[in-house]
Structure formats: C-alpha cells, structure tokens
Amino acid sequence: DGFAIVWNFETGAEVGRVRGARQLFATRFTSDDRRLLTAGEDGIIELHDVETGALVAWTEMHGGVVSGLAITREGDIAVSAGWDGRIGIVTVDDPQRSRLLDPGDYV
Predict the structure, then answer these.
(1) Would you state the pLDDT for residue 100?
(2) With contact defined as beta carbons under 8 Å apart, do 83 and 65 qualify?
(3) In DSSP terms, which residues pair with 24 in a beta bridge?
(4) pLDDT exceeds cutoff 90 at 78
(5) Which one of 3, 23, 61, 106 is least enclosed by Cβ atoms within 10 Å?
(6) Torsion of CA 40, 74, 14, 68, to 10 degrees
(7) What is the C-alpha to C-alpha distance for residues 28 and 68, in angstroms, rounded to an integer?
(8) Strand, coil or helix: what is 46?
(9) In the predicted model, what is the mean pLDDT of residues 74-96?
(10) Within the chain, what is the greatest distance between any pair of CA atoms?
(11) Which one-letter DSSP state was computed for residue 96?
C-alpha cells in the first residue's frame, strides 16, 4: 500500500506513518531517527519527517525499482542500488545533489 509504519518496540504503539511508492522495497532511518528514507518500484528516493509524515525532499534516481538503501553513520550520504544496475549516491539534506554511477564508474 506504499506506507512505511514506524512502531515503538517497547510500547507497541504506532509512532509515525509515511507514504512512499506504491510498493516500498527499501527504507533507512537517518542517524538521528527523525527522518526516514524510502524507495521502491518507481525509482524515486524520498526523505520523510517521521513525526509528521511530511515529505521533506525527493529525487528520481533509477530507471525502475530501487532495491536497496544504505546510509552513512554520520547520516549525510545515502547509497541506493537499483535494478537498472546503477548505484546512486544521495546527499541526504539535498537529494537533488545526487549522482548515479554506472557499472565500471569510479567514485
């Protein structure tokens, strides 16, 4: 249904809900746990505020499904993997400043 639901494991209560792609394939919290990256079938990576569910920023990275997301310990850079065979490097605070790497590219 495209929703990522955030739960409090201690209380079992729902903490937040964000709307992403129709089918989400990957999610990752930022290091402060206040924002959530989502990605799915549409090739778009979105940054959401967990408390409000609001869409903070987005970028279209891949030509199809985004199957994986990782984020640096500092929380400033995210890396995506897509079924298009490319790797995306995303600046979390400004996803429009992103870069796609094709197979064989170097960072």
Answers:
(1) 87
(2) yes
(3) 40
(4) yes
(5) 106
(6) 20
(7) 9
(8) strand
(9) 89
(10) 47
(11) T
DSSP string, 1-34: --EEEEE-TTT--EEEEEE--SSEEEEEE-TTSS
Cβ–Cβ < 8 Å for 102, 89: no
Q: In what order do the strands lie in the sheet with 44-49?
A: 24-29, 35-40, 44-49, 55-60
pTM of the model: 0.82
CA-to-CA distance for 58 and 94, rounded, in angstroms? 9
- Rounded to whole angstroms, the Cα distance separating 33 from 20 reads 17
Could you give the 3-state DSSP secondary structure of residue 51? coil
For residue 95, give the amino acid letter.
P
Give backbone dihedrals phi and psi of 75, rounded to 5 degrees, phi first. Answer: 85, 10
Tens of pLDDT, residues 50-61: 888 899 988 888
98: its two tokens: 């992103």
Q: What letter represents residue 30's amino acid?
A: T
Residue 65 tokens, joined: 């499904």
